[in-house]
Amino acid sequence: MSDTQNLLAEQRRALILDEVRRRGGVRVNELTRRLSVSDMTVRRDLDALARQGLVEKVHGGAVPVAEPATHEPGFEAKSTLEPGAKEDIARAAAAMAAPGSAIALSGGTTTYALAQQLVEVPDLTVVTNSVRVADVFHAAQPPGPSGAARPGAATVVLTGGVRTPSDALVGPVADRAIASLHFDVLFLGVHGISVEAGLSTPNLAEAETNRRLMRSARRVVVVADHTKWGTVGLSSFAGLDEVDTLVTDRGVSAAVRAEMAEHLPGLVVAGPGGVVEESGADG
């Protein structure tokens, strides 16, 4: 953690969170030395991370939040976490959707942010198991004066299914609909991603639906902010080698970035000004 004196609060907190997750806990006095900031600054950072539910404060420091592997926050709760990172990821990922292509978007708050960028891409066919994502396209592309869809408007295919707490439609109905389709790119949101567990979710039915989505796609692009790295849900549904590209944000530390690049075929790190870094095991 060198050269951190002038870090923005968001970057500093990302470094602290990475330390907590890698080491299983940190102490305030260690962080003040490593970050070259005051005791009060570190305590404010830990307070902010604790309010977001990312760490648990203990006497003299902080430890990771021990969530049950089956815990799945609702859409509204997740939408308040890392909004800036999700916007950066969405802008970078949107560049991977070619006009006129068939794409798929899974449920999730990052894919919801991505949908708002994709409405500008003409002539897309969009397959999604998210009511929220479908609503973005319908709201952004109203019919023209004659009642017909305006030129360039996306064609949206919404699967049926049972709604999860994160507003994804999953289960046998969704699985059957997806199995008969084929798309150029799948943009997949995930609950957790790690070297050992791969891609995971706390919802067993969603795991199977995500497998179906991946089987129907020629290219799989995972969109996940830095807090998802190291998180493991109840059910793993794919290995990292089944992902073509991970798009994440610059909140990942240099150490985690190197680990990602070693195990993922393609890695894109996005920031407010665009793509910060591209790397991966294949490059």
Structure description:
This protein has 283 residues and is of the alpha/beta class. Helix content is 36%, strand content 24%. The protein contains 10 helices and 16 strands. The chain has helices at residues 9-23, 28-35, 39-51, 75-79, 83-94, 109-118, 131-140, 172-179, 204-215, 254-263, and strands at 26-27, 55-58, 61-64, 102-105, 125-128, 155-158, 162-163, 169-170, 183-189, 192-194, 198-201, 217-223, 235-238, 245-249, 267-271, 274-279. The strands form 4 sheets. Strands 6-5-4-9-12-14-15-16 form an 8-stranded mixed sheet, sandwiched between helices. A hairpin with a 5-residue loop joins strand 7 (162-163) and strand 8. Helix 1 (9-23) crosses helix 3 (39-51) and helix 5 (83-94) packs across helix 6. The longest helix is centred in the first third of the chain and has 15 residues, at 9-23. Residues 1-6 have low confidence and may be disordered.
